[in-house]
Specification:
single chain, alpha+beta, Nucleotidyltransferase, domain 5, Actin, Chain A, domain 4, 6-stranded mixed β-sheet, 20 strands, about 20% strand, globular, ATPase_NBD, nucleus, Actin-related protein 6
């Protein structure tokens, strides 16, 4: 088989690799600028070379879940294809993901860039939930692969609940929540800036703090009551040692009072922020977003599907995306969905070991699908019909 590259084009990070690779490379999908080195932009993984990570400014290619800055996206592609992951597209087929309900003009631009700028020989467009469906249905240890599943994709800008029935998305049942990883990081910045010190310019550090210190509460009221107690009765409170960019490259959590008097570290005390921030995924109304939470939206999406498919959908729920990494996600989602689902249905919620890269692995199964060749847009098709012709002339 010809070599095939799978590129999962996320708003936060790009996951790329040959389908024969064991795992993909994960590269930040942005350009960053630091106060200490104003003249030099850091593209993707180059941020590891930055000496001072305080006050890093992000220039993103995505706005509200869709590519709007093609100049930034093109620079990120150039960096990846020349340095991080050199690839010759003239003899390599490409699988690339796009957002759900992507705008036609963005689809056209994507096709034009890969055929005109990178001399691509053939490409197949899909979505991350589609690849998750391929991965899930092909890796379940069952006599027959499940015909239905629900993909909960907790992304950077949004969270989507996408039901699949017999390999096809039920478009009318897809639900979107305007809460994702970016909003959680921004909310944590606001809380810390209000309570302790101004960190509104510290997106990079606070995002790491969110990843290291936050978790999903299983009983919000009980955890909130515990957070009011003094240490050591308080089991929630932790100190987060901030990076100083010399001895400490990335911050870390430690129990309160661990630091010695001789330690010259700057620390922030984290208490109920640790679970109150991820709680927005379940209760967006807490900050004025008048929408359903993940569990309620999942019930809503499943009930919008044909009645005979619902038992199968409840039994095959998969949670992916960077924010699925929060500890307690699987237990909380199962508990909430179980409490709202009909009692005679089996509910099964799966959070894979690597939810951020889960969709990329689905590209391996897509490339081996008998219908894969038919889904390709070839260079000949593009030259004969143009971008609009190959995308919408059906």
């Amino acid at each position: 088989m010809d070599s095939v590259v799978c590129l999962d084009n996320g708003a936060c990070s790009i996951k790329i690799g040959y389908i024969t690779d064991e795992k993909p490379k994960v590269i930040p999908n942005c350009i960053m600028k630091a106060k200490s080195e104003k003249r030099r932009p850091f593209i993707g993984n180059q941020i590891e070379e930055c000496r001072d990570i305080s006050g890093i400014f992000y220039i993103l290619s995505f706005t509200k879940g869709y590519i709007t800055n093609w100049e930034v996206q093109k620079n990120v592609y150039d960096y990846i294809f020349s340095t991080e992951f050199p690839v010759n597209f003239s003899d390599t087929k490409l699988i690339i993901t796009e957002p759900l309900f992507n705008f036609p003009i963005i689809q056209e631009a994507m096709v034009e860039i890969f055929f005109e700028e990178y001399d691509c020989c053939a490409m197949a467009k899909t979505t991350a939930p589609d690849l998750c469906y391929y991965q899930y249905t092909n890796t379940q240890d069952l006599d027959e692969p499940p015909l239905c599943c629900v993909v909960i994709d907790v992304g950077y800008s949004f969270s989507h609940i996408v039901p699949f029935v017999k390999g096809k998305k039920v478009l009318s049942a897809i639900r979107r929540i305007d809460v994702g990883g970016k909003l959680l990081t921004n909310h944590l910045k606001e809380i810390i800036s209000y309570r302790y010190l101004n960190v509104m310019d510290e997106s990079y550090v606070i995002n790491q703090m969110k990843e290291d210190g936050c978790f999903i509460s299983q009983d919000f009221n009980s955890d909130m009551a515990n957070a009011k107690l003094k240490y050591p009765e308080n089991k929630i409170a932790r100190e987060y040692v901030l990076p100083d960019c010399t001895t400490i490259r990335r911050g870390y959590l430690q129990p309160p009072g661990t630091a010695k008097k001789t330690d010259d570290y700057q620390m922030l005390r984290l208490n109920n922020e640790r679970f109150a921030v991820p709680e927005l995924l379940f209760h967006p109304l807490d900050i004025g977003i008048d929408q359903m939470g993940l569990a309620e939206a999942t019930i809503h999406a499943i009930n919008a599907c044909p009645e005979e498919t619902r038992p199968h959908l409840f039994a095959n729920i998969i949670v992916v995306g960077g924010s699925a990494k929060f500890s307690g996600m699987q237990t909380r989602l199962y508990k909430d969905i179980r409490s709202m689902a009909p009692e005679f249905f089996t509910v099964n919620v799966t959070v894979p070991e690597e939810p951020q890269t889960y969709s990329w692995y689905g590209g391996q199964y897509l490339a081996n699908d008998p219908n894969f060749e038919q889904s390709l847009i070839t260079r000949q098709d593009y030259e004969e019909n143009g971008a609009r012709g190959v995308l919408f002339d059906e």
